Amino acid sequence: MTEAPSQAVGRMRVAESVALAVAALVLTAGIGALLLLVGGYDPGAAAAAMVRGAFGSWTAFTSITLVRSVPLILTGLAVAFAFRAGVWNIGAEGQLYAGALAAVWVGLQGAALPAVLLVPLVLIASWVAGAFWALVPTLMRLRLGVGEVITTILMNFVGIYLAAYMVHGPLQERRGVFPQTDAIPEAGRLPALLPGTSLHWGFALSVVLAAALAVVLRYSRFGFRLRAVGASTEAASVAGRIDVRRVLLVAFLGSGAIAGMAGGVQISGVTFALYEDLSPGWGYTAIAVALLAGLNPVGVIVTGILFGALQAGAGAMQRDAGIPAAWVGVVEALVILAVLVIDRVRRRVSEEHS
Amino acid sequence: MHGVLGANGAGKSTLFNVLGGLLRPDAGRVEVDGQPVTLASPRDAWRHGIGLVHQHFTLVPRLTVLENLALGTRGVAGRPAAVRRATRELMERTGLSVPLDEAVEGLGVGDRQRVEILKALQRDPRILVLDEPTAVLTPGEASGLFDLLRDLAADGRAVALVAHKIDEVLQASRRLTVLRDGATVLHCLREETTEAEIVRAMVGDDAVDAAALGLGRRVERESAGGSAASDRPAGSDRSASRDDGGPRHGPQPADGPSVVASLAAVRVDGRGGPGLDGVDLTVHAGEIVGVAGVDGNGQRELAAVLAGRRAPDGGTVHLCQAVGFISQDRSREGLVGDFDLTENVALAFHRRPEFQKGSWLRWDRLEEEAEAIRGRHDVQAPSVRTLARNLSGGNQQRVIVGRELAMAGELLVAENPTRGLDIAAAAFVHDELERLAAGGVAVVLISTDLDEVLALSHRVVAIARGRLQEVPGDRRSRKGVGSLMLGAETTHD
Amino acid sequence: MNQAELVLFLEAAVRLGVPLALAALGETISERCGVINIGLEGSIIAGALGGALGALAFENALLGVGIGAFAGLLCALVFAVVAVGLGADQIITGTAVTLGGLGMTGAIYRARFGATGTELSLPTLTSVRIPGLADLPLVGTALFDQAVTAYLAYLLAPLLWYFLFRTPYGLELRAVGEAPDAAEAAGVQVVRVRFLATLFGGLLAGVAGAHLALAHTGTCAEHLTAGRGLIAIGVVVLGRWNPALVLAAALFFGAASAFQFFLQALGLEVAYQIFLALPYLLTLAALAGWVGRARAPAALALPWESKR
Lengths: 354, 493, 308
Description:
Chain B is an alpha/beta fold. Chain B contains 20 helices and 19 strands. In chain B, a hairpin with a 2-residue loop joins strand 7 (about 175-180) and strand 8.
């Protein structure tokens, strides 16, 4: 039905990829500034406030920007991984919640265990839960041929409501006052990465994961098959004699697991408890993160931090320049559209030349 | 009737699209009745009385025949009742008959072409242009088509046939135009030229090009068959020399008739086609088995089974391990456009232990293999890091052929391997196939190009409606195989 | 439960189903020519905000609906330019448009109406009662004592059906959705058809959004749309891209959303999040059960460029 998402942005060399990203950012900044002016705001003040909020101080950078970038990097990796395989996983949001739920539950259950056991268990639980949340859309695509775009988005809503139900009911804190769970014990929490900051080991884990994914995609047997399937299922199946369905299955579930990990890491490293609206839409921002990075795992680290900065600066922007924080959504959308538009224009120009 | 001939890549399709308003010329003029016209869209073409019959049908599969015919007509004339009435009249006048209320996707190729022709005739064109109309027809159906075209021409219309098959066009046309490399190189009445001259015009005087299969070999065969042959006026009865049994040298399979693949009573359920309906086939080492048939009779399923991609729904298949496969849809199934040469070569080799190291691929070795293939088959590409989509069609095919030849341990399956290729590229493919067979590898050549099959194969098999029929030596001719392709019994011609 | 409670349930079902129906009918037209607009959500929320602002500015709910429709059209215009005009991927473009639409409307809402929690009082779309029909037992008030936009939905369904299947323009539209190359060869201007159809879908989605804001709640809370654009797409599939069936499917979904009232009336206490999730689960089930039998337009979601 649809062309593969990995073809939505054509294959480019790294240099071209970076040029595209920069051009997209410039275009976004331009249009964003224009829109702000129309709305009667001061783009300069907005940008200044944002930069200050994100990079203004060491604390701001490590404890806010980098910490905020962790779920974005992880969900960005999940989305990039899926898109490279030709799987439209728009369900990172729901998978994240599923992972967070599992993490909280295991964390609370395992109160008696030492940290060296509990932390890995919590993370593994989030992988499994995330993969599980991707299972229904996966099966619907592989067995029934139902496009996964809509099914994954629908599962997002189910996941959000499930989490809401849990924190209002079965998993609610013992006190019973707020709609949130109890905090998981110390043993289940990720240790701090940089002393004196809120930056936790989740950041290191996400960087390591990104590097691992990059290597796997580029050099391993499975990574090659995944890229082939993502680029062309026909060529992969005929010329490559690849079992397309198996590759899709692993890619889809793997993507779900990584997104689930984003939820688990957020619980274990930052919030320690689950509440409603844990995620301000990371699963959707992840699409912008992945696209701007050209679906390259290492690039996702960079764009993840960039979007983390954006979200970190949004609060400052609202405080200092009076622009509502929801504006960030517009910027993210502009980034995606800019990448798409510039890529299309680039392709048309090169076609006319050949 | 006017025949426009040219090899693949000579510019025939481009010319066709310009006439139909689907393509704007960068230079030059189009004149109708001596008046220059601009054809900026299909509607412009219609207004000037030009009707196109496309090679790849421009029908909407899920709509009914009537709806397809109504498409594009506006206003009152577009109402279903009016279209139905007009179509009935047209069908009576032309003798073409199609079921109006059936969806196009359920129709066979012959019916679809009839709809395509009706669509063109609907607007009462004074000029009818057909693009490779016989490509999807059996020889019998083709002659029926020519009868119809002759009637239409007799009506006072101009009919132009764009094709690359000389014989059919010659029989029907009064005037000829030959294109080569995008320019007209010959334009005359049929009786003013010979077939040899036409062939030379199509391929050029370059001896290398002329040594290509099909056209070139026909020239040589004619000159070998006696000096009088090549000077015979074009269009006269050539059946005698053309129906000589077998290809020029009567290729003999390499020694050792060991069986490389065998199918027994194989059934495959085809989606939207007959599939395979009880097929027996044995393939021996070193022989080229040609499977001739018109598209849609089970070739894709046969290819999939032989390539080991599809397990049969019934019957047994014995296959050797390493089977090479050249797909007919090279840009979609043969290569990944976004991959470079090394990665495309890796498509075939990623399963081989010698290119693996645990879970990793040995990219250094794969790059060497890609370099070797590039050199061996003279692929015009700056490096093995060039992306496949930046290569020309001929070079892409060289990569695919080179890769699959290297893959093929004992068997190579080739599905329309020269479709859409220019003469030089086609000749390259044929040479490689012959060389492979001479080296002891079995080749199954599945092709809709009857000349190709007849010229290359040691054994010929006809496929029709999912069944195979071996073609005995004395029936190795276009007519003989043609009737088997229709599924007719062996007795009558 | 007694008669009165059942009638309330049916009224709620229709009330909740109408915006779905409007959005889904518009999406049916655009999907029929091969464009899947995930940005529908953005159009709906734009319509809600536009409707609210318009109603406040003109102190008239109907004019508010008009502004809302226009806002929905603008949102769809962005989508159309990028996905249809430039041929970018429809899914990603749609997701971006929704993200942007939510962000933009959220920002404007904040700026205009202040922090969350304040309820506005907007001019509402009063119910229009159709005499005679509204007196039918059980369904009378549910179907025929609704806001004007409901009647728009009832009328559009058969009209669009007729348009699609009985007029030459509808034929062209369907051809574009099945085989755009063939349509082009037959003289149809593919890009123009897709563009107009997408804008039409955005227009109707805008009306749906305005209905949500103006027809009974009289408020415009931030998370008003909550994925209704997605459910509308599910409704289109359930209705097999046939306007008449789409209307029925939308009302069915409305009933599913209203189900909680039904159960409450029966005295059952079930967590309300389950009900919030119910439409989405239903859509999943619908997709699983029905896709096999219904066939989507063959060229759906495929970016298309002229071969000329």
